[in-house]
Amino acid sequence: MKWQNALNDYKYYLKIERGLSNNSILNYELDVEKLINYLDTNNSIISPINIDYEQVQAFIYDASKQLNSRSQSRLISGLRSFFNYLVFEDYRKTNPLDQIESPKIGRKLPDTLSIDDIDNLINAIDLSKEYNGVKIGERNRTILETLYSCGLRVSELTNLKISDLFFDEGFIKVTGKGDKQRFVPIGTNTQKYILIWKDIRTHINVHPEHKDTLFLNNRGKQLTRAMIFTIIKDLAKAINLNKIISPHTFRHSFATHLLENGADLRAIQLMLGHESITTTEIYMHVDRSHLKDALMEFHPRR
């Protein structure tokens, strides 16, 4: 089908020209597939090539019954991007999403952990725990320490390589969204835990494809994102933490704690790997006391 060729071309465009990660490309693809499944379910001969505004509107209305405002907005944005590509490549003349407005959503402030929360989570790890001879307790402690001390995304953590460690210089090389690389400072305490894990790692029968991957499962392969979520979820349950947390919560906490302690917003942006500082500015809304402190310290009429 012509639209299938268009979708394959679109995925290639997202990867090569826009440099998006595989996870981001998958999300864009899922947006289109939701529309296709809707059309198939309704026995329609319509495809993305010839669908019109009313038909797209009917799909959005149907999908909105199961989505909150934020998810609706993301779906509309993903489809708008796809149809913009179809117009650009002359698959069709107009974008049927041009007349559809995204729902108004407030800016969601990130959830954060206190320093005590983070200490309690790490202290709850059973360091003696082994699986098939692998000390996964030590590994899990190192994972949480690295997430928090370097502010990494979960995919950046799972993709971290041994060759990315530059401890003599006090940095690690991180590959972020769109394969963009940055150097992030790493403290001596976290370096210590990574070196302990590296020593344990030498006793694992490492899969040939993951010889350079830092964090491995007991089968010698790269850890999955889902496994990191599970580790954190189990620890939160163990300490009766009354919060829903994820690996990203450690990243938010990293940025918030830096800001609270007087770090420059531009420095935080570089460490997080945000392309625009407006993305980093969301942390200014988490603790407004930092603004007052800045005014009292630096304004000439304070």
UniProtKB/TrEMBL annotation:
Keyword annotations of the record: Cell cycle, Cell division, Chromosome partition, Cytoplasm, DNA integration, DNA recombination, DNA-binding
Transmembrane segment boundaries: none
KW DNA-binding (keyword) present: yes
Primary localization class, coarse: cytoplasm
Subcellular location: Cytoplasm
Sequence ranges assigned to domain Core-binding (CB) in this UniProt record: 1-87
Residues the record marks as active site: 153, 177, 248, 251, 274, 283
Limits of the Tyr recombinase domain: 108-296
Function noted in UniProt: Site-specific tyrosine recombinase, which acts by catalyzing the cutting and rejoining of the recombining DNA molecules. The XerC-XerD complex is essential to convert dimers of the bacterial chromosome into monomers to permit their segregation at cell division. It also contributes to the segregational stability of plasmids.
Annotated NCBIfam families: PRK00283.1 (NF001399), recomb_XerA_Arch (NF040815)
Family: Belongs to the 'phage' integrase family. XerC subfamily.
Subunit structure: Forms a cyclic heterotetrameric complex composed of two molecules of XerC and two molecules of XerD.
PANTHER family for the chain: PHAGE INTEGRASE-RELATED, TYROSINE RECOMBINASE XERC
HAMAP family assigned to the protein according to its UniProt record, in alphabetical order: Recomb_XerC_XerD
Identification of the protein by name: Tyrosine recombinase XerC
Organism of derivation: Psychroserpens luteus
